[in-house]
User: Fold these one by one.
Assistant:
Number 1:
Amino acid sequence: MKELARRILERVVRFFLLFSVFDRFLVFAAYERKRILRGKIEQRLRRLGLYGDTVQSGPFEGMVYPEPEVWVSCRFEKVSGFYEFELHQWIERLAGSGKAFTSVVNIGAADGYFAVGLGRLFPEARVFAFEAAENRYQSLVRVSEVNGMSNRLVAGRWCSPEALAALDVGDCPLVVCDVDGFEDVLMDPALVPWLQEAVILLEVHEFLAPDLPGAEKEAFEKQHPFLVRDMGRKIRERFRISHVIEECLVGAVPIDRYPVFRNLSMGEIAALAESDRCCIHPWFLMTPAPTNA
């Protein structure tokens, strides 16, 4: 009887999945379920003393987040130390390079993870952080306060090429840019000349998919309008003379490196560590070429 009921239910679900509206509803329901599960796991880990408000590992170890009521994107990932872990090797290399960065410019700063984290790594640098969304901007200000950086961090809202070009960044700026495709406008040395002397960490929002037919790729891009066709090629062309460009792809979290996961089931790990990104895309580390440095 149970087997018959299961088969009937399976056919009913498959029938409704033929309709895009029902499919989108299930995607939304799965996302909301994941958020609820994340909240329950985080509460349990807090009660056990395994999850607090201080970053536990990675280049920003020791950075502090404010009370849980303050909005922070990917708080668990940031506190546990594996947020954007692909970039850790680059950040640690920059920290050990001996470069005296005169400024840190973070565009798309969200709650200040990179702005404050890099500000702590490079205490002599002035920090400029741009965040357009109101709730994220307020979190950015609060995170800078609890880390004692209010006097060094200049927070702004909307960033334009004109606003960027007007910054007094000194002779050795470090830029982190994650702006959901708007890098097509901002990362242009013709509009912002000092970018030619900057070290730049840039999230490149494009759907790589080199083997997909053009029509399928275009359909996916229409569903995710922040993806810009050939963005990587455009950026490489703009900076081909002034910079050496390295690339890494976003990927799955190496859970064996983070002890907190040993206390969780695989389902719980998936809820906490599975990426919400829509596709694999690259980060660029762009360093001024020796002849340009």
Number 2:
Amino acid sequence: MTTEDGTTAHEPNDRPTVSIVIPTHQRAQLIGRALRSILAQDMVSWEALVVDDGSTDGTDDAVAAFADPRIRYISRPVCGGVSAARNTGLDHVTGDVISFLDSDDEYLPGALTALVDGLRASPEASGVKGLIEGDVPTRGHPMASLARVEMLDQRTHPGLQSFAYRRSRAGHLRFDSSLSRSEDRHFMLELMATGPVVTTGQFIARLHHTSGSLMSSPCYQPWARFLALNLDEIAASPRLHSSWELRLTRVAIAEGHAPEARRHARAALRADRRNPEAWLVAGAAVLGVAPLRWAGALIRRLSTRRAPGRHGDGSRAPH
């Protein structure tokens, strides 16, 4: 079947319990690991939608080699980015539950069962979020609801690979293609507006860091847009607002946006005058770019030492 946007897909015969959306671009040598981890699941009622975002490396042949009707190959004629690829997959899902897996990652044994059981145990929930291998389990009730402030705080990783949600509650949601970073965080916030997202202490996925990482891609523009989109909520917490402005100060300096760096430095102090880091950065901004760069580097080192987890936002390639 060829859709209006030029994508090509094959429709399944039976309705599965879980639809797994897998965006990929130039990952022919890696996609097999992801698919094998799905085939190894104890749950058999699933469909895996591999959305090939304009690859030219034989990804189609790598997927076809599995010859399993539950694996659906969807071809996008040109590369539109991870959000566009995920949205294409969402346009074709048929399962009751939707999950995501990047093409260089893998599910751990029992992952799909754990996610579905988590949703069944919490009928009021729109979604369920488990753990990524290497995460440190938090104390408290294992099925507690994830707070929005946790997702607004960039120190908490969205972890789409360990997440699933009900299509009946949020099947209309799509990723914001204008965000090259934090698109997963923004999606999670929109999902949380449809109902609670409960957490489970079960480990769901293993991440692999491969070439093509987003570490070297620009941060400032997408992060500034994310702040603008969610400013009302973020500004409700002086600490959170100040930390976001400081973060934007650092990336603006690193990417050569000196006027924006000074503006965010002043905004950080206005947001929370009790934040000593904001005083340091705002004072340095008065002296010029070089002192501001030094202050930003100092705060970055301090923040890294305090960081509670290893999964930073935008730390890896999403395809």
